[in-house]
Amino acid sequence: MGQSNAETQATACPASGGSLFDLAGSSLTQPEIQAHPNAFYQAMRREDPVHYDEKLGMWLVSRYEDIVTVLRDPLTYSDKHGYAAQYASGFFAEFKEILEREGGGFFPDVIKDDPPAHTRVRRLLEKAFTAHRVASLEPGITTIIAGFVEKLADQAAGGRVVDGVNDFAIPLTISVICEQLGLSHFSADKIKGWSAAVTAQIGRMQNREQMIDNARQICELQNFIIEQMKQREAAPREDMISDLVHAHTDDGGKLSFAEAVSLIRALIIAGNDTTATAIGNLLFILATRPEVAKALQGSAADDRLLNRFVEELLRVAPPVRGLAKMTTREVELGGRKLPEHAHLLVLYASGNDDETHFTCPREVDLNRGNLSSHVAFGVGIHRCVGASLARMEIKVAAREIVKRLGQIRLAVPVEQIRYLPTVATHSIQSLPLTLSRRQ
Ligand code: HEM
Asked: Nearest-5° angle of CA 184, CA 200, CA 122?
């Protein structure tokens, strides 16, 4: 689709506006832009597609085609260096020292490496998330999710206000990933705090005091993981932690202790924060777009439609807003010459909103021809390894919600919904709802 044709279509869409945005005076670090970023994304795509955000000190990659170019070329756009430069930004040395002193060590994220080191651990994780294995998990996950929906309905009885994020989406996804990992005795509140502490390291919004607090939480998480690993070293069980502790890589070797800690930590965090955000967004959309809720209520048994809905939900409200990469050489991107070591923030969320790729991008359109070409899970060698599990979890949540619940309504005006302060995700902080059981 050509640019001018797409722009004509975009202006015909109800939700699209002209680009009256002061890009030079704006930054993704501003809370109001983080909360409602689409006009900012649109202005970048139209006026300055690879835009330098002075306050963030990063180049924002906003157009769909440039995002795909970056993600398909991991040697020019390094995940490892982009992530390292973003991690605990501004406080890295002190952060690392706290982890070494109190958290069993500093364990770099091995999955956030570049090839060939990345390929070695990636293959191992892929085995844990094959489509076949994920399909076999669906009945058990359905039982867990149905239980959470019923509990939410009980809590909401008599018109009481419930929190769709903190009472439902977060504890639900924590239960699912803990079940996978084999963590039967876990505290959902602790895991929620640990997740927030880890994701804050790429959010670019923490001050020193928060960094110290977050580092202590991560120490606790690592000590917990190390204890779990020790138990399985002594006596293997049928769970993912045992698989990782005893796994053999393709080269016949084993994961080192540090690699295993970092992978288990990555699965606990990546497996719950993003999916919880998606399930919070699911409830938000059902509460604010009655036509979508109606279409789904008539189709709870239609797996194909539910799958299309999940893709469109992830496109229109992608949980991961942007992740970092770094150029390893001088390169031209989107008409802009970038030097070696340019620090980029790849805005998956803006790619999904790009009117040159998706017609009327702000609309939820279950009949969209190219709906699965969204980039909510990334593209290329670092594409989300847990995508099939996440998709299934969101689909089951959608199905159980529309099967068991009737009307879902926001309990506050939409303007009062707050988002977490971070450039990495776009997550609703708390979602006050009223809801009833389906009659
Ligand atoms: C809706 C939920 C989810 C979303 C939107 C999401 C999104 C993403 C994105 C955008 C990336 C990075 C791609 C890149 O670097 O360009 C990623 C990577 C990753 N995700 Fe997810 N994710 C989700 C759920 C999960 C789950 C459930 C797990 C595991 C249980 C998981 C594990 C991972 C891991 C380990 C990586 C690193 C892969 C690599 O670098 O090779 N994610 N995810």
From this structure: 60
